[in-house]
Automatic annotation (TrEMBL):
<dbReference type="InterPro" id="IPR032861">
    <property type="entry name" value="TAXi_N"/>
</dbReference>
<dbReference type="InterPro" id="IPR001461">
    <property type="entry name" value="Aspartic_peptidase_A1"/>
</dbReference>
<dbReference type="Pfam" id="PF14543">
    <property type="entry name" value="TAXi_N"/>
</dbReference>
<protein>
    <recommendedName>
        <fullName>Peptidase A1 domain-containing protein</fullName>
    </recommendedName>
</protein>
<dbReference type="InterPro" id="IPR032799">
    <property type="entry name" value="TAXi_C"/>
</dbReference>
<dbReference type="GO" id="GO:0004190">
    <property type="term" value="F:aspartic-type endopeptidase activity"/>
</dbReference>
<dbReference type="GO" id="GO:0006508">
    <property type="term" value="P:proteolysis"/>
</dbReference>
<dbReference type="Pfam" id="PF14541">
    <property type="entry name" value="TAXi_C"/>
</dbReference>
<keyword id="KW-0732">Signal</keyword>
<feature type="domain" description="Peptidase A1">
    <location>
        <begin position="61"/>
        <end position="396"/>
    </location>
</feature>
<feature type="signal peptide">
    <location>
        <begin position="1"/>
        <end position="29"/>
    </location>
</feature>
<comment type="similarity">
    <text>Belongs to the peptidase A1 family.</text>
</comment>
<dbReference type="InterPro" id="IPR021109">
    <property type="entry name" value="Peptidase_aspartic_dom_sf"/>
</dbReference>
<dbReference type="InterPro" id="IPR033121">
    <property type="entry name" value="PEPTIDASE_A1"/>
</dbReference>
Length: 411
């Protein structure tokens, strides 16, 4: 599916639900409601969501979340972007229930706008937002509040009233079509769901996801499910704050060999199905890859699934059938103290035609400039942790097919 919802102004935690009005019956407001008699562990707990989907052929991972009272179940693709929730809702319901609206004087609203663009002529005016995506998609809407039930890993269920975006004018880029209701982004910022839960004292501002190469996985907010050892940590680079998650510049290795490509600006992006290198890194990597395949039982295939595909003597059934012909790629951060290894199964797919295709693409060709995105394909079977409390990002190989024992959702 390629890029999904690249926000040109920064990658911060939000949800934008691109659904029909009939799929969600109004952005209704409701009072904060506790939905179980158990007590929360507060900032020591985690909220857990089960993930569904895969890189190929589905093209994305998504979670299911309940919103409102009465509750509506919506499915949301994981991405990086700038608001908490949004959807095509029944705006007449909003006009009647004004207490659902976030007003423009609130700090949360101000955080969505650069100073020159921020206008609040009347303190009771609604908070409008407009998001432009790098893939030429966009969303126009308003901020509202409603119940968003969350289940903790200890079994407690709460229904805090959280602010989120209610989109009424959505433009999707060509080819970016999915049957889900919208998107659920992972990031940091005042308007994000995780930040709102943190401000209520309910969780730590920590996000983790584990996407299975087979299908599915899990997502959590809070620090309870972070492993106590074995994680490779790297400090978040300063531009990560309120924008995107970057472990800083990296040096690119092909196997154990340095490619000579250094100081690559890296972003971890769950909003991209595939991984994107800038032109130089891509060309160097591709040249080394093609050289290593000389003499191997693979030939270039006429397969339009991705930019480059190879066929064998007979159709492949799994990446495991062909991974021995390819070489791991490594990104080395922070003076080689932190390394992310990307094995062949984390940059290859097998197409519906039985060919093996390269899931590392040229980002410069699609307008990413010098940016390098580490997408879902390269984060599979990794527990990735974005610790906004300690300003660090971590990863560890994991079995993403097993949900944490302490709890699952949807609620």
């Amino acid at each position: 599916m390629g890029l999904r919802g690249k926000d040109s102004v920064g990658l911060v935690f939000w949800v934008v639900v691109l659904c029909a009005a009939t799929a969600f019956h109004g952005c209704s407001a409701a009072f904060f409601k506790k939905r179980s008699s158990g007590s929360s562990n507060g900032v020591g707990s985690s909220v857990v969501f089960q993930l569904r989907g895969n890189v190929y052929p589905v093209g994305y991972y998504y979670a299911e979340v309940y919103i409102g009272n009465p509750q509506s179940l919506i499915s949301l693709i994981l991405i990086q972007a700038v608001i908490s929730l949004g959807f095509n809702a029944m705006l007449p319901a909003l006009a009647v229930r004004r207490n659902a609206l976030v007003v423009c004087t609130e700090a949360m609203c101000k955080s969505l706008h650069a100073p020159p663009a921020y206008k609040c002529n009347n303190p009771t005016d609604q908070c409008d937002y407009e998001v432009q995506y790098a893939d030429n998609g966009s969303s126009l809407g308003i901020l509202v509040r409603d119940i968003v039930p969350v289940r903790y890993s200890n079994g407690t269920v709460l229904g805090p009233r959280l602010a989120f975006g209610c989109g009424y004018d959505q433009h999707v880029s060509k080819g970016a079509v999915s049957p889900t209701d919208g998107v659920l982004g992972l990031g940091n910022g005042k308007s994000t769901i995780v930040s709102q839960l943190r401000s209520l004292g309910l969780i730590q501002n920590v996000i983790g996801h584990c996407m299975s190469a087979r299908s599915g996985g899990y997502l959590f907010f809070g620090n309870e499910l972070v492993p106590s050892s074995g994680i490779v940590w790297s400090p978040l680079s300063p531009p990560s704050i309120d924008k995107h998650y970057s472990p800083g510049p990296a040096e690119l290795f092909y196997g154990k060999q340095s490619t000579g490509v250094k100081s690559l600006p890296i972003i971890f992006d769950s909003g991209s199905s595939y991984t994107y290198f800038n032109r130089l890194a891509y060309q160097v990597f591709l040249a080394l890859l093609q050289k290593s395949l000389v003499g191997k039982p693979l030939n270039v295939a006429a397969d339009k699934t991705l930019s480059i595909c190879w066929k064998g003597a007979k159709p492949f059934k799994s990446v495991l059938d062909v991974k021995q012909y390819f070489t791991p790629v490594t990104l080395s951060f922070a003076n080689k103290k932190s390394q992310l290894e990307i094995p062949p199964e984390n940059y290859l797919i097998v197409s519906s035609l039985g060919n093996v295709c390269l899931g590392i693409l040229n980002g410069t060709e699609i307008g990413l400039g010098n940016m390098n995105l580490i997408g879902d394909i390269s984060l599979q079977n990794q527990l990735v942790i974005y610790d906004n409390e300690k300003q660090q990002i971590g990863w560890i190989r994991a079995d993403c097919n097993r949900l944490p024992k302490s709890g699952t959702v949807p609620l």
